[in-house]
Design goal:
This is Glycosyl transferase family 2. Keywords: Transferase. It comes from Carboxydocella sporoproducens DSM 16521. GO terms for molecular function: transferase activity. The radius of gyration is 21 Å and the shape is elongated. The termini are far apart. A four-stranded parallel beta sheet has the order 3-2-1-4, with helices on both faces. It is built from five helices and four strands. The chain is of the alpha/beta class. Helix content is about 55%, strand content about 20%. The longest helix has 26 residues, at about 5-30. The protein has two domains: about 1-30; about 30-145, Spore Coat Polysaccharide Biosynthesis Protein SpsA, Chain A, CATH 3.90.550.
Amino acid sequence: MSWWLPFFCLLGLVGLLLWGLFYSRRQQRQPQMNGISVVLLTRNNAANLEGVVRWLLQYEYRYHWLLQIIIIDQGSWDQTLAIADKLAREHFNLLVVEQKWFPLISPRRLAYLAARYQRVVFLDLRQRQQGKRELQTLLRIFNEQAFGT
């Protein structure tokens, strides 16, 4: 009869430990609701990368919107990575990822893993026409959240 008490105490502690680990991991993986993660897919876009990032940051400062910018570079040989690193040092909410370090993961999956917020918008700077459509979508999302329309 004396072994029941330590057994149930130990079982309760193990259960509490497992529940705590599961609950803390679950809280870390859930993205926040009230922001947007913008993913810039780049390759040799040194000419317009800084302008696009500053344009996005302008919306963040103007409308007090929570914004995370993720730059995924897919093998640039110009100054794209240097510009992205410079911008990442200036702004705490900008993340630079080189695709060559993760060759087996698609860039979109990589972006979803790195995203902090639940809304994720992709801007493909490599394709000009697709980028214009995505910028219009992003502008519509910003306006909906800023003005409630």
